[in-house]
UniProtKB/TrEMBL annotation:
InterPro entries (alphabetical): Endo/exonu/phosph_ase_sf, Endo/exonuclease/phosphatase
A GO molecular function held by the record: catalytic activity
Lineage of the organism: Eukaryota, Viridiplantae, Streptophyta, Embryophyta, Tracheophyta
Endonuclease/exonuclease/phosphatase domain residues: 4-194
Pfam families: Exo_endo_phos (PF03372)
Name of protein: Endonuclease/exonuclease/phosphatase domain-containing protein
Length: 224
């Protein structure tokens, strides 16, 4: 199975559409995600590929009759689909990076470095790298926290205890500039195996933007 992504920078001319058709003919993909199409409708793409088309803003998802794709959610910055292949479902998401200030938090079920896990088997470096790649693609900086370094535990004692930092809050530089006095606390464990992480969102105080930005954290691969 082959997927194709292309930021095409506009498909408003026959030349651009022919270029897309040429790529599809050579690569023979099963599904295609296009961003910055600058199209208001998908009529110009009717003969590009197969039966399936999903359009949102400047994003378009195309797929052939040989795959089973169903829309899950979409916005001006993403199209999320459910793929059914070999009797199994998995998600495929096309993303265009947003220019809006962006704050993101919750249970990511992933870690940014081996030091964010204690006990149990080591997390594979491939999984760690994949999560870091997403964080870097989105332009996120990690907001500094106060409290216990791990947010999840398997609840066991002794050598069987495993703890990881699965919950976090991150934001883009633009958001951090707007709310540079924000703070995060890892509260003590309650009934869940995850710690609550309240985030106090506050604007800069007395021009303190630069100071707060230095306290935010961006992971760099070179540190490994």
């Amino acid at each position: 199975m082959i997927g194709l992504s292309w930021n095409c920078r506009g498909l408003g001319s026959p030349r651009a559409v022919n270029a897309l058709k040429g790529i599809i003919n050579v690569e023979n993909p099963h599904f295609v995600f296009l961003s910055e199409t600058k199209l208001k409708n998908k009529e110009r793409l009717e003969h590009c590929m197969g039966e399936g088309k999903r359009m949102r803003g400047g994003l378009i998802f195309l797929w052939s009759e040989h795959v089973n794709l169903n829309p899950r959610s979409y916005s001006k910055n993403h199209i999320d689909m459910i793929m059914t292949a070999n009797d199994k479902n998995w998600r495929v998401t096309g993303i265009r990076q947003s220019n809006d200030p962006w704050f993101c938090f919750g249970d990511f079920n992933a870690i940014l470095s081996a030091t964010e896990k204690q006990g149990g088997n080591n997390k594979s470096q491939r999984e760690i790298d994949a999560f870091r790649d997403v964080v870097e693609f989105c332009g996120f900086r990690e907001i500094t926290y106060i409290g216990h370094p791990f947010t999840w535990s398997n609840g066991r004692g002794g050598d069987e205890n495993v703890q990881e930092r699965l919950d976090r809050a991150m934001a883009t530089d633009e958001w951090i500039d707007m709310y540079s006095s924000s703070s995060i606390h890892h509260l003590p464990k309650r009934k869940s195996d995850h710690l609550p992480i309240p985030v106090k969102i506050s604007k800069a105080i007395d021009g303190n933007t630069q100071h707060k930005r230095r306290r935010s954290f961006r992971f760099k691969k070179m540190w490994l």
